[in-house]
Amino acid sequence: MRNTDETERAGGAGGGTAAVRFDTKIAVLLREDLEPWQRLNVTAFLVSGIGTAVPELIGEPYEDADGSGYLPMFRQPVLVFEGSKATLTAAHGRALARELPTAVFTSDLFGTGDDRDNRAAVRAVGRDRLDLVGMALHGPRNAVDRVLKGARMHP
């Protein structure tokens, strides 16, 4: 899905399209100084957290014309943003204050090898000292927009 707007095109019985505007937003905020491979890795890990925390965001399984089945995905677009370390830190604080479902990825996680070590690395640091490189969140559109103040769409 495109990450440039909040609408989805849905085909109708006559083959036409109708815009669907979602009441919620799924967003990923990445620190602007990440390498391309890091951006992809962080985004993949972060959105997996949103999908498990908010299962109603997941649509139905896919199937091609030959009957091959594929895993379901989010029902709505995932918008990807970037910002400075300060922007990410401020957004993290606003997301926690609004109690929005949030996933975090810290710089320490680039050096760990499994889920247990990942959780231990995050647990070892207080929330105000986390070296965040990315976060994902889900919530009402307006609340997510407020959390992401100062961030810009990923190029």
Describe the structure.
- The protein is of the alpha+beta class.
- The chain has 4 helices and 9 strands.
- It has helices spanning 36-53, 85-97, 115-123, 141-147, and strands at 7-11, 17-21, 24-31, 62-63, 69-70, 78-83, 102-106, 132-140, 152-153.
- Strands 7-8-3-6-9 form a 5-stranded mixed beta sheet, sandwiched between helices. The protein has a two-stranded antiparallel sheet with strand order 1-2.
- Strand 1 (7-11) and strand 2 form a beta hairpin.
- The longest helix has 18 residues, at 36-53.
- The chain is globular, with a radius of gyration of 17 Å.
- The protein starts with 6 loop residues before the first strand and ends with a strand.
Offer a few descriptive terms.
alpha+beta, 155 residues, 30% helix, 4 helices, 28% strand, single chain
Structural topology:
Layout: E1 7-11, E2 17-21, E3 24-31, H1 36-53, E4 62-63, E5 69-70, E6 78-83, H2 85-97, E7 102-106, H3 115-123, E8 132-140, H4 141-147, E9 152-153
Parallel strand pairs: 3-6
Antiparallel strand pairs: 1-2, 3-8, 4-5, 6-9, 7-8
